[in-house]
Design brief:
Bound molecules: flavin mononucleotide
Strand content: 5-15%
Low-confidence stretches: none
Number of domains: 2
CATH topology of the largest domain: TIM Barrel
CATH architecture of the largest domain: Alpha-Beta Barrel
Structural class: alpha/beta
């Protein structure tokens, strides 16, 4: 099946059909900026933001909706269960200069789904349609909804919701091809995503889940007929994936992902974005967790990883990255993709 035409969210044109999927705690502004610099990203979204916290202008929440000229077009993802609060949050985001707003209808964790937000919205048709319609009517910018296939395998309600959403003016639907009950286990159902594509008339459907490389994306596009795909966890291990996808679409082939040294350069760029915003003292503290995790995935020896945690200034960070580059990875080759382990909730669902 040929690829669909250029992707639009309502009147908002997107430069590619390859989107960065939100990963709370990871797809922060510094990460989004470096992925955008590499190229190929049609749209990137903030982590899910609490609509009530947004209205109270909670400091941490306001930081979550910060953006930068490099980070355009810019989407904020909100969650909540009260239509008027969600609509007020949307109005506030419009004033804030956001290009498009995504409603989270897929988050499986109890704190959110149990309170009727996130995936919990899949359990209540009338109140969900009312909430989404209230948000759509509140603002002039496009509204999208990101959801799962359904609550469990006996209630695959995503096609129904997608059709209803289109009728009330939603501009796009993103669909993670698992049920809430599956959490992050099992496999993504391409027929399930396809059923959503077939349920709508015109609005774009974005397929999501388990895309690790160009071949996986090509398969999802071909087998589901979706208009675009969004990539989450694989973008952390391979931030070049969006550029590869665009190259593949345009030429049929694509350049390999960046090397070990290019990854180190990206780390420095990510740190620099943090320092620009927060100053070195706070930037270093914020960067430690991310740096540890990058360096571990890149098989950097524990002693150097440890030293990195003690770095205090940009000059120390640069000197350490230089030494890490000279030493190279402990195992594997310098060009292999790192094996990044992204923590996902696991264990019994009622404990999430
Ligand atoms: C650590 C983590 C955080 C996530 N945070 C969000 C979030 O804030 N909003 C959201 O809609 N989905 C969130 N997701 C789901 C992802 O966006 C995506 O739907 C899912 O990981 C499947 O895509 P992938 O296999 O490409 O990662 C999160 C997933 C993970 C693993």
């Amino acid at each position: 099946m040929p690829l669909r035409g250029a992707l639009h969210y309502g009147a908002l044109p997107l430069s590619s059909r390859y989107l960065l999927s939100p990963l709370a705690g990871f797809t922060t502004l510094p990460f989004r900026r470096i992925v955008r610099r590499i190229g190929g990203v049609g749209l990137a979204t903030t982590d899910l933001v609490n609509s009530r916290a947004l209205l109270s202008r909670n400091e941490r929440t306001m930081q979550m909706v910060e953006t930068h000229p490099e980070d355009r077009p810019f989407a904020v993802q909100i969650f909540g269960s009260e239509p008027e609060i969600m609509a007020d949050a949307a109005r506030m985001l419009l004033e804030h200069g956001v290009d498009t707003i995504d409603i989270n209808m897929g988050c499986p964790v109890n704190r959110i789904a149990g309170a009727g937000s996130g995936a919990g919205m899949m359990c209540n048709t009338d109140s969900t349609l009312k909430l989404v319609q209230t948000v759509v009517e509140a603002v002039s910018i496009p509204i999208s909804v990101k959801m799962r296939l359904g609550w469990d395998s006996s209630q695959l309600s995503a096609p129904f919701f997608a059709r209803q959403f289109e009728q009330i003016g939603v501009a796009a639907v993103a669909i993670h091809g698992r049920t809430r009950e599956q959490g992050f286990g099992g496999t993504v159902s391409l027929p399930g995503i396809r059923a959503v594509v077939e349920a709508v008339e015109k609005i774009p459907v974005i397929g999501n889940g388990d895309i690790r490389n160009v071949a996986d994306a090509a398969r999802m596009l071909k087998e589901t007929g979706c208009h675009g795909v969004s990539v989450g966890r694989a973008a952390l291990a391979n931030p070049w994936i969006f550029r590869q996808l665009v190259e593949w679409e345009q030429t049929g082939s694509y350049a390999p992902a960046g090397t070990f040294d290019e990854r180190l350069q990206l780390m420095l760029q990510q740190y620099t974005c943090l320092e620009e915003r927060h100053g070195s003292e706070r930037a270093i503290i914020r960067f430690r967790k991310m740096a540890h995790w990058y360096l571990k995935g890149m098989k950097v020896p524990a002693s150097l990883r440890h030293e990195f945690q003690g770095a205090r200034t940009m000059a120390e960070i640069e000197a350490l990255l230089e030494r890490i580059s000279q030493q190279g990875p402990q195992t594997g080759d310098r060009d292999a993709l790192p094996d990044m382990h992204i923590p996902v909730p696991n264990g019994p669902l009622d404990k999430w």
